[in-house]
Amino acid sequence: MNALFSSHLLTAVVFLPAAGAVLLLLFPESASKAAKWFAFAVAVLDFAVSLPLWTRFDAATPGFQFTEKASWVPSIGISYALGIDGISLVLILLTTLLTPVSLLFSVGHVEKSVRAFSISFLLLETGMLGSLAALDLALFYVFWEVMLVPMYFIIGIWGGARRIYAAMKFFLFTMAGSLLMFLAILYLAVQNRAMTGTWSFLLADLMKMELPGSTQAFLFFAFALAFAIKVPVFPLHTWLPDAHTEAPTAGSIILAGVLLKLGVYGYLRFALPLFPEAAMRYAPWLGVLGVIGVIYGAMVAYAQKDMKRLVAYSSVSHLGLVVIGVGAFTATALSGAVLQMVNHGLSTGALFLLVGVLYERRHTREISAYGGIAGIVPVTTALFLVATLSSIGLPGLNGFVGEFLVLVGTWSSAHRWWAVAAATGVILSAVYMLSLVQRVFWNPLVHEENRSLPEIRKTELVAASVLVVLMIWIGVRPNDVLSKIGPSVAAIQKSAYRSQAALK
Amino acid sequence: MSFVQFGPDDLASIAPEILLAAMGGILVLLDAFAPSTRRWFASLSLAGIAGSLYFLAKAPVGTSFGGHYDTSALSLAVGLFLGATAAIAVLVAKPYLARNGEEKGEFYALLLWGHLGVSLMTRGLDLLIVFIGLETLSLSFYVLASFFRRIEASSEAGLKYFLTGAFGSAFTLYGIAFLFGKSGSVLVSSFAQPGLARDPLVTLALLLLLVGFGFKMSLAPFHAWAPDVYQGMPTPAVAYLSVAPKGASLVVLYRVLSAVFQEGMPDRFRAGVAALAILSMTLGNVVALAQRDVKRLLAYSGIAHMGYVTIALAVFGSESLAAVIVYFFAYLVSNAGAFAAVAAFYRDETKPHPIGLLAGEGRRSPFRAAILSLCFFSLAGIPATAGFIGKFFVFRAAIERGLYALAIIGVLNSLVSIGYYLKVVYVLYMRESVEPEGPPPLAIADRLALGICAAGILFLGIFPSGLWSLAVSAAHALPFSPP
How many CB atoms lie within 10 A of CB A448? Predict the structure, then answer.
């Protein structure tokens, strides 16, 4: 039993939430409290099950670990292939961590159709984890698309005032990108069949194909579009402020914390290794879009009057920095980009959570409705401040490490001026975030109703503290995480350069 | 002609159809002379369908009636598809008719006879048998369309279906006549003559058949009848009509085309079929966006789906036929499931079926709402549902043949379709209910039909291997030339 469990550890991590969702169906509709805590328990259990991935992961071995492979649809060559490297490892742990955090926050706040909410959330977790672990393109696509359905319900049913519009926009934007990727996946499989005579959707098999440059460009474009929408890269970002603002707090945490990263992850895992030549050729464009994203996102964020929208636009800016790191493609910049994904998940997750705390008490997200509440809710203020400082990259907290690596790595690449622009973005992030803190927590107290603002609840406090502890941990000991990421990033980089050299 | 003499093997091969005809007759007689047996009609119909499938499985493989009638892996696979559709229609019909106080034998009898007609179409190797099947189907469904004869919309549906049906049949017959004139026979196998494919009159004949069967498939631009007819026809009958005859028509087209196009489909013909596919997908999806009646929405969605599946016809060849078979099994569970849910949601058949009436049902009727949503996600082609598998094979076939533009237009159309499928899901879950009175209680037969469709959607979506093998072996029954 134990051996079976160890050899199928990834399967257990991926499908435990889905199994929990199925069990939730057996709960009576009225047992909403039980459903909440059950879902939370399942998510915590999944986190516990995912911990051995971290402890048993061997950073020294290149390639995928914890691999599993079984034939799924043998007649058409689709296999159930899972495996992780350092990049997927950190993102999987981020997912298994943020899901219970979000559910813990929701325990006190989701009142409508709780059972359905819990089921959606757990299915979403399986979709995210599956996307991060899949090594077969067809399997990846299934997980990637299945994620949309629970997220659509989470935004559409439990969201804010303009939730329907936001949910629909989210669904259509994401789908638009992935449908072309679907055709590109089919094309790859068809080409592979023509060359080898067998059907396969395995990443390892499809990577071996040497496609002519023009074909690569088309396919790369199809993949990159799907991932760029998800990140989102400017100018494909317009779905994000709507989706993040209208989603319920838990949904925003997951959207910002994990879903956006899947875009960058997909690019690193699939687009780059499959089409190295095209990826290297178009990387400068990606970097330029990243630069625009950093500065544009920051400036728009500064202009927002809605707290949640501000944090949402800050995501556009922060993800722009990650995209710059990927575009620069030096080992340091790539490591920084991956670490920055984790950092952004923690800090923005915490910010959304704390904005949610305020929103649940005042039912407004207008910045001008607050002010001077630092003395009334000191714990909330302190937590918010830490998350803000992490977000703007204060040394000693996690954000600094990631941003610094991206900047240094980009400076040493061929695109030095990107680093200049990215550094501007870092400064701008301090401008909009600190002014947000200033306007919400300090400034004179003008609204009388804020005088009786209740302090953060125990469940909320636990959820937020977990994130804050991790921010400090990564800030102080970044090497714990970087050592897992480094070899995998180097492997991706090496294989891309190698195939580029082979083509020359 | 060899028609006149037949032996026990011939009888065994047509036993499935004989049983259907007889069961229909028995039901009409029972209705007239023993009305107290009415509550058994649905069970008897199901028994008839099951028995007919049993005889089909037992029938000796090969041709019968001197090469005019087919028993092959293809007719078996298609027979299974048709029988499943009919069974779901019967399950939906029982509570539906009871709710409307119309639990009459002729409904089941006409459904079985229509089903008999569709079976003849798919098994006939002789275009006259195909035509007789087509007319048997049409005549039965003309009556079924106006089954609620006191409701204006139903009478309208009957008349519209009759007029366009007659029009379509004329095209079909004209095409058959040309083929007969050029080949000297109505036997499909006799069309496999060298040089026949290049004859302009034969091309004309094939185009006429494409138009005639295009009407039955509700392929744009021959689709105009579908929304009105679906709206007025009893929903269980629509569940059958919107699935089975469409699949059968495509099988007939494949039969004829595979015989004529010995050297593959000529490019100009392919361009014509591709144009029909594009028109049907685009028109169906765009117009569906504007629909407010759920049955009309499903009609336009069906027009779009016939466009997707016509992509496979443009690809042509054995693998594409297998893709079509998979597509129709997927379409069966999704589309018939959607109609089953619609039948269970609306109480009053004298009125239209506005989508708005479904508001808030996600909470009030969670089982129905969940299955209707699942059916719509499947129709939209979301992975892990049957609908995705259908599209997977069709688009893969298109890419293998190098029809990239067609595949790209196809996926862009899927994107458009999400707009209206999600609209219904949104109404179900994200709007507050407007009707004080909920939908009628679910009968066991409703639960069964919905449960079977949902299970089918998920099972085929997650484990499509068996179905694909079945479809591949079925497709080998037709003599496609190697590409």
Answer: 7
Nearest CA-CA partner of A503 in A205, A179, A275, A339: A275
Q: Do the beta carbons of residue B282 and residue B439 sit within 8 Å? A: no
Residue A280 binned pLDDT confidence (cut-offs 50, 70, 90): confident
Q: Are A409 and A330 in contact, with CB atoms under 8 Å apart?
A: yes
Supply the mean pLDDT for chain B. 92
The beta strands (E) that lie in B48-172 are given as 62-64, 69-71
In terms of phi and psi (left: phi > 0; alpha: psi -120 to 50; beta: otherwise), the region of B66 is: left
Rounded mean pLDDT, A163-167: 89
Distance of CA A83 to the CA centre of its chain: 19
Phi and psi torsions of A69, nearest 5°: -145, 130
The stretch A186-193 carries a mean pLDDT of: 92
B121-136 as b/e: b if 16+ CB within 10 A = bbbbbbbebbbebbbb
Show residues of chain A in contact with B407, CB under 8 Å: 183, 186
What are the backbone dihedrals phi and psi of residue A70, each rounded to the nearest 5 degrees, phi first? -145, 155
User: 3-state secondary structure string, B96-127?
Assistant: HHHHCCCCCHHHHHHHHHHHHHHHHHHHECEH
- And the tokens for A451? 């005088």
| Amino acid symbol at B147 | F
Q: Shortest CB distance from B415 goes to which of A141, A142, A179?
A: A179
Can you spell out the DSSP letters for A13-77?
HHHHHHHHHHHHTTS-TT-HHHHHHHHHHHHHHHHHHHHHHHHH--TTS-S-EEEEEEEEEGGGT
Q: What pLDDT, on the 0 to 100 scale, is given for residue A502?
A: 61
Query: Residue B83 and residue B87: Cα distance in Å, rounded?
Result: 6
The whole-angstrom separation of Cα A153 and Cα A163 is: 10
Name the residue facing B415 among A157, A176, A187 (closest C-beta).
Answer: A176
Residue B2: pLDDT over 60: no
Kindly state the average pLDDT of the residues A413-420: 88
Backbone angles phi, psi at B476, to 5 degrees: -70, -15
User: What are B182's two structure tokens?
Assistant: 């050029």
Predicted pLDDT at A100: 94
* pLDDT exceeds 60 at position B483: no
- Report CA Rg, chain A: 22
Cα separation, A99 vs A250, in Å, equals 8
Q: At what angle do helices A32-56 and A86-107 cross, to 10 degrees?
A: 160
Helix B73-99 vs helix B318-331: angle between axes, to the nearest 10 degrees?
20
* Residue A202, phi then psi, degrees to nearest 5: -70, 135
Q: Which two tokens stand for residue B179?
A: 């083929």
Q: Is A172 on the interface with B (CB under 8 A)?
A: yes
Taking the C-alpha atoms of residue B203 and residue B117, their distance in angstroms, rounded to an integer, is: 27
Rounded Cα distance, A174 and B191, in Å:
48
Of A148, A153, A168, the CB nearest to B429: A153
Neighbours of B263 (CB within 10 A): 9
| pLDDT at residue B138 greater than cutoff 90 | yes
Chain A nearest C-alpha distance from B163 (Å): 40
DSSP state at residue B187: B
Q: Using the beta-carbon criterion (under 8 Å), do B464 and A145 form an inter-chain contact?
A: no
> Distance between CA atoms of B57 and B44, rounded to whole angstroms?
20
Q: Where are the domains of chain B?
A: 8-475
- Separation CA A144–CA A118 (nearest Å): 20
CA triple A394-A397-A398, angle to 5 deg: 110
Residues in chain A: 504
Residue A387: alpha-carbon gap to chain centroid: 17
Which residue on chain A is closest to B384 by alpha carbon? Answer: A142
Between chains, do B415 and A141 touch, taking CB under 8 Å as contact?
Answer: no
